[in-house]
Amino acid sequence: MQVTRLTTYPVKSMGSEDVPSAQVAPEGLVGDRRWVVLDPDGNRVSATHCHQLLGFLATHYPAGLQISARDGATVRVETPGSDARRISTGMSRVDQLSAADDDASAWLSERLGRPVVLAYQGDGDVREIGESHGGRPGERMRLADAGPILLVTEASLARLGDWVAETQQQEWLDPGEAARRFRPNVVVDGGEPFAEDDWFRVRIGDVTFRRGELCDRCVITTIDLDTLETTHEPIRTLARHRKWDGYTWFGVRLIPEFEKDAGTSRITVGDPVEVLQTRPLGVSA
Q: Region labeled Disordered — which residues (predicted)?
């Protein structure tokens, strides 16, 4: 097996940025989900309720981000410094974030038709990985929902496509477009469909990862990324095959395993993926 796609999401709920290689830190892929859109009360504005966010593309440049709208308009925003205004948030396990400059937030507010603040998670804004999500003491993450890195496999995407075709009597999305719906960081080829459920420890390139948990899926996967309209798939079909404990599951959340103060490493498209240890869910060490 090998890595076929690496993706970061610089701003949570905005469009993705495919990269040929990525640095891996204990918190996840460097540059992934460090920024978030908040309302004036500090609550996260999610694509679940604001589909327009998925129509923006954020890309990195050396001093910060460039955000592009679908009409071609762009804004550049520098990474907030230590003197930036601090915002209290309603997000889980993070008390405060740093506000971006007012011009960037105003630009985004105008296009969303609602007042918002673009905010950044600085190095000191530590966010623990919850024990219920497979975290261990001292393990931390950025602004992803529950785990630092999400992996899906092409085999599982293909099986889901078959299920949708059988149910709807028509083709769904090609595997590349289907992967975008699930917003993974890492896509892997080879193997059997849903074998990743039982992967407990894997090596990608030179980096070892531990399974935190499977990923429960929400309605964001049903948003057509071209029209930004809600559809029925893939959740309707996926729930027929992959629903238990009240949730629908697809993909696995991984936690990088680093020695203390080991710095970062790098993974690259084409890197081999080796399963080091399997353990069915619910089986303890």
A: 1-23
